[in-house]
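Contributing new complexes? Match this layout with zinc ion.
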Amino acid sequence: MVARQNYTIEVVVPNMKTSDKLIEEVIRQSVGVEIVPLVRYLRNRKNVSEFKIAEGIKQEVNITRNWLYRLYDLNLVTFIRKKDKIKGWYIYYWTFNPGRVRDLQIDLRRKRLEKLKDRLKRERGSDFFICENKCIRLDFDQVTEYAYKCPECGTLMHQEDNAEHILSIEKEIQALEKALQS
Ligand SMILES: [Zn+2]
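Output block (do not edit by hand):
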């Protein structure tokens, strides 16, 4: 019988799935969904020329370059350039900068929080009206303009109880504030 050895090995396995998901979400929101494949390609590589990236994502070099510049504007990529000895021009080699993702996530959350706070103010400060078919939601000025008749289905509009709406906005605000504190 082998005595159980009394030590533990701590293996830190990064949660690749979550962090991939986070990166893609941040890219989608801050740069654009079309650029996600480029980031996916570049993510685990280093110093890749834009020609090779274009080939790797099956995209035109000009478009690839434009996307790289957009990422560069947000410090999401870095580059080094080397002079091509034969052709005499510079070739750029790109590397993804995952360290920026967290900062951008915080920025996005802050912006969302501001938006939610505005919405909450609006929800608390005004009355909203809906029809029985829930076609459209109007504020007081709009509903008087339509003489309380739904512009979509023509039925009478009545004041909506927005307590639940307010509650769900408050919940999201709380969750965001908590996430921003961590
Ligand atoms: Zn309606």
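Reviewers usually confirm one structural detail per submission. For this one: The pocket of zinc ion is lined by residues 131, 133, 135, 150, 152-153, 155 (CB under 6 Å).
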